[in-house]
Each structure stands twice: as structure tokens, then as C-alpha cells.
Amino acid sequence: MTRISLTVDGAKVSDDVEPRLLLVQYLRERLGKTGTVIGCDTSNCGACTVHLDGTSVKSCNVLAVQADGAEVTTIEGLAQNGELHPVQEAFRECHGLQCGFCTPGMIMQSVDLLNNNPKPTEEEIRLGLEGNLCRCTGYHNIVRAVQHASGQSEEAHA
Ligand code: FES
Ligand code: FES
């Protein structure tokens, strides 16, 4: 066992974990953060995406011990004071989801994308989300949602 201390969605936590425990398992099974989901066992789908010190990572691809000392934000930590994050709001407004399984990861990746590129082109959005798979939407409304969140909604609806 290895002792880790980190901040998750604003709360400080410390735990003894197996060195092989994945961050996604730690979040879901120890902390009950089941908003972060597991969609594959090949690091392909992106459903497990969270922010590690402000940068998106696939949490099935990170060991919990690697998050020691870090700040982790999950989909459950995005809303502030009962208000949805603007990207969450945009997904809702633009119908950027159907079954919703990919949505936590899509939103976390989209937030990171917009942090790095506040006014992305459609191509940049598609490229930025290429590590996140969606079986339902055909991606069109997801791209619209990101454009909407970036304040480019007129182009999005054109
Ligand atoms: S669960 Fe599919 S990439 Fe992490
Ligand atoms: S909304 Fe169903 S997988 Fe994306």
C-alpha cells in the first residue's frame, strides 16, 4: 500500500492504495465519483476523462499514485454553487448528448480544449475531441455545443 494525498473536486483526501490501482477506480470505488465512467479497457473511449492539475487525462490511463499531491477535477466538480459550468449548459442547450455515457468525458475534454483555445474552429474541435468516442450523436451536436460554449453559436447554427 502507498499513502496518497490529493484534492478531488475541491476536497482534500488521503488514502492508502495499491500501487496498481487506476485513478478511475480510485475515483469511482473509493470516493464514489461514479460520474466518471469506464467505457473501454483499451484507453480508447475517453469516457473516463478528468482534469489532473488542470489538464485532461484519461483516468484509466493514470495510476492513483500518480495523482499524489495533485488536484483532480471530475465532472462532479464542474458545477459551482448550483450553477452548471457553461460547457455543461451548452451541451444541454445544443442537445450534445443522447444516452449520456460519453458525456462526462466529452465535457471534461471540451473544457480543457476551450481553456487552451477559447475560439476553436470546427476542425480544431473535432481534432481536440478525437480521443473521445460517442456511439449515439454522430458528433454534430457535440461540436455545436462546444462552439456555443465558445460564444460562436451563430456560426454553430448557420
Ligand atoms: S475508460 Fe475508455 S479511455 Fe478510459
Ligand atoms: S451520447 Fe451516447 S455515447 Fe455519446
Question: Concise description?
Answer:
The protein has 158 residues and is of the alpha+beta class.
How do the helices and strands line up, and which of them pair or pack?
Elements: E1 2-8, E2 11-17, H1 23-30, E3 49-52, E4 55-58, E5 71-73, H2 86-93, H3 103-116, H4 122-128, H5 140-149, H6 153-157
Parallel strand pairs: 1-5
Antiparallel strand pairs: 1-2, 3-4, 3-5
The structure holds FE2/S2 (inorganic) cluster (2 copies).
Description:
This is (2Fe-2S)-binding protein. Pfam families: Fer2 (PF00111), Fer2_2 (PF01799). Residues 2-78 form the 2Fe-2S ferredoxin-type domain. Keywords: 2Fe-2S, Iron, Iron-sulfur, Metal-binding, Oxidoreductase. The protein is of the alpha+beta class and 158 residues long. It has two domains: 2-77, Roll (Ubiquitin-like (UB roll)), CATH 3.10.20.30; 86-157, Orthogonal Bundle (DNA polymerase, domain 1). Helices cover 33% and strands 16% of the residues. It is built from six helices and five strands. It has helices at 23-30, 86-93, 103-116, 122-128, 140-149, 153-157, and strands at 2-8, 11-17, 49-52, 55-58, 71-73. It has a five-stranded mixed β-sheet, with helices on one face. A hairpin with a 2-residue loop joins β1 and β2 (11-17). Residues 154-158 have low confidence and may be disordered. Residues 38-40, 43-48, 58, 60 line the site of one FE2/S2 (inorganic) cluster. One FE2/S2 (inorganic) cluster binds at residues 38-40, 43-48, 58, 60.
